[in-house]
Amino acid sequence: MRVGSADGSPAVRPPVPPLLYLSFQGVPARGDVSTSKRHIVVHYHELWLKGGNRRFFLGKLLKALRKSLEDVGLAKLHCPGDRILIELAEGAPIEPAMDRVSRVLGVAYFAVAREAPRDDTDLELQGLCRAAWEEVEPLEFRSFAVRAKRSDKAFPRRTSEIEPIVGRFLLDRLRDAGRDVRVNLDEPEMTCRIEVTPRSVLVYARKIPGAGGMPANTAGRLMCLLSGGFDSAVAAYKMMRRGAHVSFVHFWGGGAQPGESSVHVARALVRKLVPYQFTATLFLVPFEPLQREIVNGASEEFRVLLYRRLMLRIAEKFARRDHSLGLISGDSLGQVASQTLHNMAAVGAAAEYPLYRPLVGDDKEQIMALARRIGTYEISAEPFHDCCPLFLPRAPALHAYPADLDRAESALDIAEFVRRGVEAAAKERFHFLEGRVEQVESFRAATA
After folding, report:
1. Residue 154 sits in the same domain as residue 38
2. Cβ distance 278 to 246 under 8 Å?
3. Are 28 and 19 in contact (CB under 8 A)?
4. Strand, helix or coil at 59?
5. Does any domain span residue 10?
């Protein structure tokens, strides 16, 4: 928008009101966007940093959007400039579409746009101005700007003309309504955005945060050691958000009662994470028999660290089969005795593959907050039988060195333990298809 404030005075910028960043349940408000034709405007950020590789990343983002929306009435997906326009079929429900878009990795933010009437003879843009007023009138703000983009060069008005015409209309209507509002071109609280494309003229002002990050399946494969707790699922999500495709290996022990093992929790966590990357593999390893062997043959203070080293070695076998480039764990520095710097280094020394710990600098509150946001918190909060605390030592080592654990393992047949763990494992595969997560295969891992 190329006009100054009405009285020339500087705009005061109070805190951004929460209405400007609505959850999708809050859209539409007044001046309903739920017409027969629905449009969603998607913006991305990091893809612009990819230079000559941007086409590859953008292609992955478009593929993810198509797959996410395949059953909710996607009519057309096109890319005018630095954003993506999603056109839904007539009568397509808007909220399921918004729910799917909110989980697509690589989307910085998106908006539901209303379609303004297009009349190329209307040089005063009266229809566009009315649509803009319907969009912004319900919102609370004290400064605003209008930003227009025109990918259709045949439209009779340039962006330098559209912005002041619509901006002046909005300012007059807001002042007539008795609202203390100013134009602020540098840091507006609310921005009314206009997209002029060959197919339509769209208006939107309410931005909904997306998942952000990089598009799914753009950075190679990783294998995550998945417990039933909060940390490892969040660690997996953080690596997915950077473009990694994550497979999972879960080590489980038997519960006191039937159904008390952690397998159901691991499956539920994978099901919750699959929609971000569309497919996933889960390896299930019965671990309690191997733990008993460690308890019988190794020093008590090193038990948990030896469990973890054995888990890494077994996970590497599956990582090799899965063409993974590394392992993920949910370690957070200092959270428990096994996650001191010394102990993490001693455990990690057993791994041949790179070991990624995306939560190492996060505290528990940060981890729990992200678990709530991605929907894994409620699953991990369920009671289940965790194998790691089994036979927990009374005084676990805090400052172990790799040589200490090497000596402790010298009395154990580690190669045989790894073989037994791999052969006893089950393998399950999951797909996200038409809005549902389905388990498509299940078989013994040793036969895969």
Report:
1. yes
2. no
3. no
4. helix
5. no
